[in-house]
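Researcher: Quick one. three chains, 1096 residues in total.
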Amino acid sequence: MFSGRLEAQYSDSRQQSETAQLGMWVFIATEVLFFGALVFSYFIYRFTYPEQFALAGHDSFILLGSVNQAILITSSLTMVLATRAAKADQQRALVLLLSATVALGLAFLGVKGYEYAKDVAAHSVPVIDYVFKPGYRRPTEIFWCFYFVATGLHALHLTIGIVLVALLAVRAAQGAFSPSYDAPLEVVGLYWSFVDTVWFFLFACIYPLGRAG
Amino acid sequence: MMHHWLPFWPRNAALSASVIDTINIGEFALVLLILCFVYGMMLVFCVKYRRGSAVPRHETGQKSWVWEIGWTSGTLAAFLVLFVLGAKAYLFLYKPPSRPDLELYVVGKQWMWKVQHPGGQREIDAVHIPVGRLVKIILASQDVIHSFYIPAFRLKHDVVPGQFETFWFEADRTGTYSLECSEFCGVQHAHMIGSVIVMSVADYARWLANQGATESLAQQGFALARRYGCTGCHSASSTVHAPSFDGLYGSVVHLADGRTMAADERYIRDCILIPSTQRVAGYPPVMPSFEGQLSEDDLVRMLAYIKSLSEGRSP
Amino acid sequence: MSATTAGLPARHPESQSESYLGDEHSLGSWLFTRDHKRIAILFFASITFFFFIGGAAAALIRLHLVNPYGTLLQPEVYNRMFTMHGIVMVWFFLIPSIPATLGNFLIPLMIGARDLAFPRLNLFSWYLFTLSGFIALYFIFIGGDDTGWTFYEPYSSNFANGHVIAAAVAVFINGFSTIATALNFVVTTHKLRAPGMTWFRLPLFVWAIYATSIVMLLATPVLAMTLALVGIERLWGVGIFNPALGGDPILFQHMFWFYSHPAVYIMVLPAMGVVSELVACFARRPVFGYRGMCYALISIAVIGFFVWGHHMFTAGISLTSAVVFSLMSFIVAVPSAIKVFNWTATLHNARISFDAPMLYALGFVGLFTIGGLTGLVLATLSADIHLQDTYFVVAHFHFIMVGGTVSAYFGGLHYWWSKITGRHYPEMWGRYAAILMFVGFNLTFFPQFILGYLGMPRRYYTYAPDLQTWNVLSSAGASILAAAYLLPLGYLTWSLFFGKRARANPWGATGLEWRTSSPPPAHNFPHTPTVTERPYRYDPRDGSFTTQDGAHFAEPAGLGLGLGAADV
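Model:
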């Protein structure tokens, strides 16, 4: 994998690289629609039940969410810097930065897991273990349903990203990448940035609710 | 089905049917015209320009824009005419009437139609109505989405759980017509069938009197309002400051978040079930939700009661 | 700028034989292939299988409906039968039919490429399709469900007794197969065109698949999310669409139809592309208004995203939104009308042969026109009040999907059969089947327009006795249609073993796919072609033609007799 071999349908590696990047952009477009449908239905209910959603949102752990936000942004930085390192043929920096990205991604998952544990302890798991506090009604459960589905899907996408970046790190350590062959870094970097961007939107939907004013 | 002058034309028993039939006949005529044109051209060309024919062909030019713009504009114009005619009729047919002669309440459930007349008369899978009167129907579902369809009136409206739907019709011919459910709702969807019996006004009055109904829907609703404590807050003598029911239905309400809404059937239902989404301006936000406590039949009775306090008003 | 594949070696070192079929024969060479042509055949096998499963369901339904009090199927079984028919036909036959078989086979050939951009992704798409197919078969085997292919809430989450989750999972995974294929087509069309193949020299089939792919990419994810939410609601009882728990069933309809309306364009756009190829070749003249056809394809794809509300005119949506959706529905019909006029105009000043593919193409134009015009009736707001959820709608969409897409699919299969298999099908049998299909189809579905106007609702296992005549006519037509579908199964299979061997360009067509052998070698072209001509350079005066890479030939002698004697 990531060998840089020229496939039969391409005339040169530049064409192969550009095509791979276009492919990732198109894939990201489909993911935007996928997450977009979820966020859209979230907003429908948020505007139908603003008070209930505010109540529920207030129970989310904004500190943990913010820490994760910082982790993920930093990981995007390390990913971009890794791509730059490959272009500048800085092999050691490349491997370190890719490893840092993986570590940060794992850290995100760790924090998220801790946050889930706290959500469970607070009985915010819809249907399975949900306690309606005074004044809370069904729409709060809809909020938490959205929370778990959205963050769960995001975590799944992030995990796939971590695996990909880890693979890149291994291949980088074997010297696979160079200024003339860095297409996989660009493509995976694009995916990583997308996963980061999704988190921006999810953060905005989940954490600031019920805390303004 | 009885016959119109076309051998298999369905029966026409209402004003709405005439409106819709007219539009449809016009559309089918246009469809036929376009079909004849297209099929005709295809046939003519297929014969004239078949490979074996000696008709002279010329070099294929590239100047097709004139034709294309021509038939694009023509098509667009024809379609827009159809759209406007259809939309106008739809707005007429689907806008709730301001002054219905009669309001009926229909609750659809798997797999029957429960119909209630304002005087408390009830029937199942049958709707008795007077001819020549503007009838408004409020639809509610107890479980899944159904659709209240009267082919002879060419009308249907989906019956959606969680909200009231309204529509109206005016029958212009007496007789018995079929009522069908036209949204798949389970195993016996095909048996959720009833009859619409259109009678003369006098016959209808006689029928009403013979049903043995003792309490009107509004009266039943008032009993519910007392039982659930609505009148505890919403009456003049209450210590709690709550909007009065008198004249409420059909009025314009100003909500706390700045919106104004017409107090129609949907508004009233949402007030009862999800009051937190419709806080009225100038009143304390203390009304509890009755979600899960009232069946569709109960909601219908309460609605009838509240409407009875606004005689003559409409949203 | 076209990305070029010029300069590739004359013969790819890995391929020894002249045909992609001949290199290797092992099962593994098929199941692990990366050759787009073999993957197309894999898809062809899968969808043909599902076509007959869905067709069997249709046969049972029509047999049952011969009698108004039919006892062939119990009500519960009938309801599950039409659900299975819809799910299988839409997602396991119609949507992949032309794109995944003809598209996969032809797109690289038509643009002069060696393969698609991502061959492994192509194979993965078939794996996903197969996985979803197994889940669908499991779902059918354990009893199916009765929600209809539309999964309306709250019935599907809270009231249906069948295996809704299994159906949703099957469709969910199927959706990813669609997305993978579409991604491949879009990227390939952008990046792998041969030198000289500019956008406005692309065959209309490529444009059609491209437009289809855009729709697939943007619409399918919404379906995936919607079905995922339905599944979550059914499994865990959260109120997303269930009003008893605070949800909105109309929101489900909006989200579902936001995908499902573009889905019908996914099903018809490829067919339009096929028809353009066929009509041009058999009328021996360029398609009238090529650029208009391109713009029409893209317009349909784009505008098709803004009309979904016309499925909800009677659902209680606001009058304003209903008016807007009706207007958009009329507007989207305009480019379709343009295409019909252009195909008709292509028959003018032409030199028409009536080989089987052309008969299918003409059948498409005729039946699609009826289907499209009745769509206008349904788009008309007040007319729709009466006709929504009746057999009128059933007839309308079958005219387009079956009379249209399936006709075009069969036409394309026949047209490119020699290219794909290297054999000719028996021509007269092909023509008989085409005519039989047209007759059988009309007899099956035209009475359903009448049934709809008479007020027979959809999804009814029983009906008023005075509607029996029309139902019997429809069922009689269905038996003829069944024969018309079984015939090609027979003679196409026969042709694989006994059909006359085909040369490179038996029809005398202009596309690049005809400039290589029938069947093509593993890497498509010995040398990457250079494109110098726009498509469809046929001359109706003598039937001669110029291929897209600039070679000029006389009309093949056997055209019209279907014997294809061209020697190119």
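The two ends of chain C are 30 Å apart (CA to CA).
Researcher: Thanks, that's what I needed.
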